[in-house]
Design brief:
Length: about 425
């Protein structure tokens, strides 16, 4: 299929806005045959310190220091010259050249945002040149495609909201659905039921939403959020932990200070936090816990993984930052059993896919994820299907930068017809 090389003839970049109204970079890659590939790069608010560097200008007179004109120039003036006439189908070669051109461990020279924009736009140009969807071009396995269970963040806390919830995300996962489109319907119904419940209990301001489309009610305690989700699921006509499961992203690095975790008005040690999460599992059957500890606490991740004995998916986000070296360390220690895959954390498609492959080979599940500062780019929907990882996190079923990914997955499911499956009653490696 890729026998005849197609040279890259033009690479262009521009500054656009993300879902928070902040600048980000968009890249166009155009082939010799006139085919266009375009990609926009997201940005996170809660960032792990080991993520690849997102290059911003720091000029307070321009978008309050958040402009990305340096990254744009790096694409237009440096990267484009090196990749001119490069075979668009050689994704590994493109990404290797980008890494070498940057020359740093964390991509701080050219910027991971500049590098990813080119890497992803090139993949789109290649897929478009073959007149096939991105998921098919990037597909890594034979056999049927696996569509992802959508993890919907419908109550926002932490850095994504203005309330007092320490936990950053409270999610629902429609594991009992028979198809992806049914899962979206179930999630949407629970979302709107939750809105009615919150308005009745907290007043009209409770329908305000956070960065990822979830509600940001004036709550202070974790149990308030989980009780509200449970009630909404039941009032929408579904069964908690049967039809729809609960999950959380603690983003614990944010509420970790001087050796203690500050949550629900308490100050907990790591050991006390293990007991805390065990209670959440016992009471609410939380099936997935992301970043339960500070990003360097590999040992605490290991202990929680052991204590819950693979009954719960323990996801490393800030812990691993889509970095194969940090994942390898986690695998050796037995820390977590799942990895969150954010392509902008590492900077190239090749590195992200290699990290996912490493996870699969060692019995870790993979969840593809958006960022809190998103765009209308739907690449992660295709990536989740290409990997057949069976899980995606793209926010609430609200706000077009979130629903764009879900809508793309509905289209993919329709296109694949009988050549895809939805992992009913399964989250990663865990049977629900």
């Amino acid at each position: 299929m890729f026998d005849k090389p197609i040279p890259i003839k033009r690479i262009h970049a521009r500054q656009i806005l993300d879902s928070r109204g902040n600048p980000t970079i968009e890249v166009d890659v155009v082939t010799e045959t006139g085919v266009l590939g375009r990609a926009a790069v997201p940005a996170g608010a809660s960032k792990g310190r080991y993520e690849a560097v997102e290059l911003r200008d720091g000029d307070l007179r321009n978008y309050r220091g958040k402009s990305v004109l340096k990254a744009v120039r790096n694409v237009k003036e440096l990267i484009s010259k090196k990749l001119l006439d490069f075979n668009v189908f050689d994704q590994n070669g493109i990404d290797r050249l980008l890494i070498e051109l940057d020359g740093t461990e964390n991509k701080s020279n050219l910027g991971a945002n500049a590098i990813l924009g080119v890497s992803l736009a090139a993949a789109h140009a290649a897929a478009n040149s073959l007149n096939i969807p991105l998921f098919e071009y990037l597909h890594v396995n034979s056999g049927k495609y696996v569509l992802p269970v959508p993890f919907m963040n419908i109550i926002n806390g932490g850095t994504h909201a203005g309330n007092k919830l320490s936990i950053q995300e409270f999610l629902i996962a429609p594991t009992g659905a028979k198809s992806f489109s049914e899962a979206i319907r179930m999630g949407s119904e629970v979302y709107h039921t939750l809105k009615d419940i919150l308005i009745k209990k907290y007043g009209v301001s409770a329908k305000n939403i956070g960065d990822e489309g979830g509600f940001a009610p004036p709550m202070s305690f974790t149990f308030e959020a989980l009780e509200s989700l449970s009630t909404a699921i039941e009032e929408a006509g579904y069964r908690v932990s049967k039809d729809i499961n609960l999950a959380i992203d603690a983003a614990a690095s944010v509420f970790y200070e001087n050796g203690y975790y500050h949550i629900d008005g308490e100050r907990f040690t790591a050991k006390q936090m293990i007991d805390y999460y065990k209670q959440l599992y016992k009471k609410y059957k939380v099936v997935s816990i992301e970043d339960p500890f500070e990003e360097n606490q590999f040992e605490s991740f290991r202990e929680l993984t052991r204590e819950l004995n693979n009954r719960v998916q323990i996801v490393g986000d800030d812990l691993f930052t889509t970095n194969i070296k940090r994942l390898t360390k986690g695998i050796k220690l037995g820390a977590a059993n799942s990895i969150l895959l954010k392509i902008n954390q590492i900077g190239t498609l090749t590195e992200a896919f290699n990290t996912a492959k490493k996870a699969f080979e060692n019995g870790y599940s993979v969840m593809v994820s958006h960022r809190s500062g998103e765009t209308e780019d739907t690449s992660i929907a295709d990536i989740a299907v290409a990997l057949s990882c069976g899980q995606i996190k793209s926010g609430a079923p609200a706000r077009s930068e979130r629903t764009a990914k879900y809508n793309q997955l509905i289209r993919i499911e329709e296109r694949l017809e009988d050549n895809s499956i939805y992992p009913t009653n399964k989250i990663g490696l865990i049977e629900c």
